[in-house]
Amino acid sequence: MTGDRGRVGFIGLGTMGGPMAGHLLAAGHRVTVWNRSSHRVQPLVDAGAESAGSPAEVAAAAEVVMVCVSDTPDVTEVLSGAQGVLDGMTPGTLVVDHSTISPAETRRLAGLVADAGGQMLDAPVSGGSEGAQRGTLSVMVGGEPGDVARARPLMEAYASTITHVGPIGSGQLAKIVNQVLVVVNQLAASEALLLAEAAGLDLERTLDAVGGGAASSWMLLNRGPQMIRRDWALGFTIDLQQKDLRLALEAADDLGVPVPATALVYQLYRTLQARGLGGEGNHALVKALEALAGIEIGPVSSLRRPLARVRSPAGETGQPVSMTQEVPPPRDQA
Hints:
Elements: E1 8-11, H1 17-26, E2 31-34, H2 42-46, E3 50-51, H3 55-60, E4 64-67, H4 72-80, H5 85-88, E5 94-97, H6 103-115, E6 119-122, E7 125-126, H7 128-134, E8 137-142, H8 145-155, E9 159-166, H9 170-198, H10 203-211, H11 218-229, H12 238-255, H13 260-274, H14 286-293, E10 295-296, E11 305-306, E12 309-311, E13 317-320
Parallel strand pairs: 1-2, 1-4, 2-3, 4-5, 5-6, 8-9
Antiparallel strand pairs: 7-8, 10-11, 12-13
Helix pairs in contact: 1-7, 4-6, 9-11, 9-12, 9-14, 10-11, 12-13
């Protein structure tokens, strides 16, 4: 495949990357795409994108290469692995990594890109799948000012807020700060709605009452109604949230900063992963607190509903769970 300096490459077409690449196409950019699972490629090809056979082919066809994959090893593989971006890029190529990964690995990979004559930005995004679909993501960018200016017109296709935080690696650190705020807000929303449920309050009216004051937050206003409806459709999965929290805990440990609430949320999410709920939206955090309280929130908020009952070996339903009893984790009822 021959190079075309006017083209954009996009690697990683999942829940976030697929809509982002779609916005680039809708904005009139010429886009070449690659994804490890080929079934995600066809909808974008149908919309006008060109398909590449490897990350190296994407890089050979593009002046700017966007990457949006799940974890640190994935970015390392698509950039520096066999048939990776480094194998196909030419001097002057700009790599923009929208993944959330290790800041240290980001800096190492940026060095490899520089050795090959290119430039790199770390530009993790926030806003969930809704933000990706609407084109209203927030981007936290680390790198050189000139490279940020070069990438900004492209990122504006899918982002409403683009902030240059500092040098390479700064975007990842800002995203870690973002994720600490996300999960602590989610914990607060979960505790508050469960308390309202236990008190017999109408949850929707309570949400209206507190949502207009100092207690309001994006998480409360956007995920609160989903929690009340027991709608666990993802904006961001528990499994991916846990990956980000591991990065946050590692960074906090390296810097000597206590993050007790973040550590607590990480452990609560682990209990949900053990129940097979890692693919649910991160607002399902409330289920971990429901298991501790023995009740669940729901649309009929004037009644306290027991969450689980003890089952005998024969499978018969026994007495309601006592919080002083040792019982297996409650069966999920969502």
